[in-house]
Amino acid sequence: MKTTRRRVLQGAAAAASLATFGIRSRASFGQSGVVRFVPHGDVRSLDPIWTTANMSAYHGAMVYDTLFGIDADLQPKPQMVESWEISDDQLNYKFALRDGLKWHDGTVVSAEDCVASLYRWSARDGGGQHMMKRVREIVATGDKTFEFHLEEPYGLVLDVLAKTSTPLCYMMRAADAATDPNDQVTTNIGSGPFRFVEDEWVPGSKLVYERNPDYVPRNEPASGMAGGKVVHIERAEWNIMGDPQTAMAALQAGEIDFFEVPPLDLIDILKADPAIRIEVLNKLGNVGQIRLNHLHPPFDKVEARQGMLALVNQEDYMRACIGNPDYYQICGSQFACGSLMENDAGLEWMENAPDVEKAKELFAAAGYDGRAVVILQPTDIPILSNAALVTAQLLRSAGIEVEVAASDWGGVVTRRAVKAPVEEGGWNIFHTWAGGNAQSNPIALSAHAATGENAWFGWPEDARHEELRDAWAAAPTLEERQEIARQLQENSYRIVTQCIFGQWVGPVAYRDSLSDILAIPEIIPFWNMKKSA
Amino acid sequence: MTGYLVRRLLATIPVMMVVAVVVFSLIHLAPGDPAAIIAGDNVTAKQIAEIRERLGLEEPLWKQFALWVGNLAKGDLGTSIFSRKPVTELIVQRAEPTIALTATTLVVAITLAITAGVLAAWKAGTWIDRGVMIFAVMGYSVPVFVVGYGLVYVFSMQLKWLPVQGYAPIADGLVPFIRHLILPSVALGLAYVALIARITRTSMLEVLSEDYIRTADAKGVATRPKLMRHALKNAAVPIATVIGIGVALLIGGVVITETVFNIPGIGRLTVDAILKRDYPIIQGIILIFSAWYVLINLAVDVLYTFLDPRIRY
């Protein structure tokens, strides 16, 4: 066939029409019911019970439901549960599930499912384990009713079931909950307001959820994790973006609707864009922790830990790590400022910090021998990387030798689990943070434990601390818990379980086409959210 | 030639075996523990140890290696520690964007670079030559991510002509497919345009000073056939070599480009796997990249025989 100019033009026209068809087919899909979200990280495991990773908890909140949920005032309220009774002696809890609960495979949610889920979850969760020490049994007493039988009163049953610190108490089918707690569940069948679209899952890149048409929300208005989870969108697409600059540009260009963690140093650019809203959803934010290794010198001596504490000037840390004072606060409370457990007991150390002379005296009293203190520095997390450098400088100012061990976060989480001495691959200090809501709970957050080698990384040990934690959990009223929290905090700073280097919030950024996003600590909810065309 | 090809292909086997040993050793000896990463933050050292055991990471290294090699022999690259999906499936899932990006980049880069290099050689010493060389130095000096951000700022944020990020499969239509590839291809290709243009110019300048070109001029051969048929063909061997090296080097550029433009390709899969210490994925991808390297070198060697009939194996 001879190639002529006419044929070339015909071919080009055909190609153009094909291409146009492509555009139409995409446009006809419709974007008004689709929320395109860029979260802070990837969902690395789809089993929100097996892992304590926050992103898996986000995934869980889409797919699964909870028996109770905290409301906007952080109080536990029923979610899957319709009604409950507590016996006068506080030893028996009776629960009844509400009508209309169905798994995504169409089967009805039963009490047996919930009992199996509770056992599996409590095997993984610190708060659940603490509660189960007092629980004799959990039994299904009907299709929709089950009971907790306790050995001794435990004031936190509803709080633990409703907590938003990971792992949340998500309900699964009995068949899935029968999975060994040390193995991952391989299905994604929940009873939550969204269904996971497994066919469109690109691990590390994209997760898609669609509205669960069979979900029956509660009648009350949505409030935190409680109330009616009414879904107003058809689909949520989570795009995992490795580069925050790209996510920011995509938000400004309208290619995404919602960016969870816009960089704080660039937030003013987004604020200047009239189509973008900036809002703090997690009002309690995050609490920065300096974890000291209690197993090895110098921080095996309380004087050395007190010396470190004397150096912690939170303003230095916050300016280096967060920078923008609109988003941080100076807060020494071990239970997060703004929480129900916030208190000012034992905060004398903050008055003169950094008190270099006092730190020198305390390190000398601890018998500091000049060996280098190893600080783990995760260079891929700017907040923690900068915190490590501030700590290093403060220690040097007190005459302490410092070795900063730089790696990525993956390297830090590996090394921090090493209990061996520094010269055998161990460590002395690492920095991290916990959500303010989790921080406010001495039981749910494992960082509060002082159970020695069974405690969280740093392994503090103190019998008095553990007695107080147990007393806090058993306290029947909020006022009693608040009083015990004061004693706990005072004790915590006496032995220096950990230092707090500040508290900050992270604003989210979203396009003005989105509205009615609920403020929940540590979860981004997609129910209640609306998107205009 | 057939014997040569067979010999070269057989020679890839020991190369791949050495790669397998080195890759496995480096990854497992480097600091990092997938169990600690997947477990999340609110766990104890004991829980991490339990996960390590479940994942088989407590087994001796030689045993883990033997298991991996045994599966490799059956064509099984293993299963991702995190997503629990077969590595082969994950790579296939991510292959289209990477192949599309590298193919587009190569086509654009080779076309532009050879044209620019030939022009620069032909017009040596003129402003065209100097312009091409200035561009080449800049193109090779500026990092991919800087070019990427610059392009996004101008063409996506200011002019709003092209998307900021993402990838549209060809099944979604040709126009969205091309629109999503233009900026990443230009960003990734710039360095290769510069590299290939410089080599083309140098090689062409050498050939243009040869006697047979002077003879062609004396015979009155027109400029175009002189440049393309006589000069470029004889200058092609070093150009083919540098293109071959460039194709191999593209792998590194793809990693950055896919991150900047949020393209769900193999480059991003690699970065994510490294950050998570997802050993089976890292091992699988490096092995495939190594095979790719070896095959590209072989293809370039074979190409020499077509470009220069004097070369025989």
Architecture blueprint of SSEs:
The complex is a heterodimer of chains A (533) and B (313).
Chain A: H1 5-27, E1 34-38, H2 54-63, E2 68-70, E3 76-78, E4 81-86, E5 92-97, H3 111-124, H4 126-132, E6 135-140, E7 145-150, H5 157-162, H6 174-177, E8 194-196, E9 206-211, E10 235-239, H7 244-252, E11 258-259, H8 267-271, E12 276-279, E13 286-292, H9 302-311, H10 314-321, E14 328-329, H11 356-365, E15 373-378, H12 382-397, E16 402-407, H13 409-415, E17 429-435, H14 436-439, H15 463-474, H16 478-495, E18 498-504, E19 508-511, E20 514-515, E21 530-531
Parallel strand pairs in A: 1-10, 1-11, 15-16
Antiparallel strand pairs in A: 2-3, 4-5, 5-7, 6-7, 8-9, 9-10, 11-19, 12-19, 13-17, 13-18, 14-18, 20-21
Helix pairs in contact in A: 3-4, 9-11, 10-12, 15-16
Chain B: H1 2-29, H2 34-38, H3 45-54, H4 61-73, H5 87-122, H6 127-141, H7 144-158, H8 174-208, H9 211-219, H10 223-234, H11 236-260, H12 266-276, H13 279-307
Helix pairs in contact in B: 1-13, 5-6, 5-8, 5-11, 5-13, 6-8, 7-8, 7-11, 8-10, 8-11, 9-10, 11-12, 11-13, 12-13
What do these coordinates show?
The complex is a heterodimer of chains A (533) and B (313). Chain A is an alpha+beta fold and 533 residues long. Chain A is built from 16 helices and 21 strands. Chain A has helices at residues 5-27, 54-63, 111-124, 126-132, 157-162, 174-177, 244-252, 267-271, 302-311, 314-321, 356-365, 382-397, 409-415, 436-439, 463-474, 478-495; strands spanning 34-38, 68-70, 76-78, 81-86, 92-97, 135-140, 145-150, 194-196, 206-211, 235-239, 258-259, 276-279, 286-292, 328-329, 373-378, 402-407, 429-435, 498-504, 508-511, 514-515, 530-531. Chain A has a 7-stranded mixed sheet. In chain A, helix 9 packs antiparallel against helix 11 and helix 10 (314-321) packs antiparallel against helix 12 (382-397). Chain B is mainly α. Chain B has 13 helices and no strands. Chain B has helices at residues 2-29, 34-38, 45-54, 61-73, 87-122, 127-141, 144-158, 174-208, 211-219, 223-234, 236-260, 266-276, 279-307. The longest helix of chain B has 36 residues, at 87-122. Chains A and B meet through helix 1, helix 7 and helix 13 of A and helix 2, helix 3, helix 5, helix 7 and helix 8 of B.
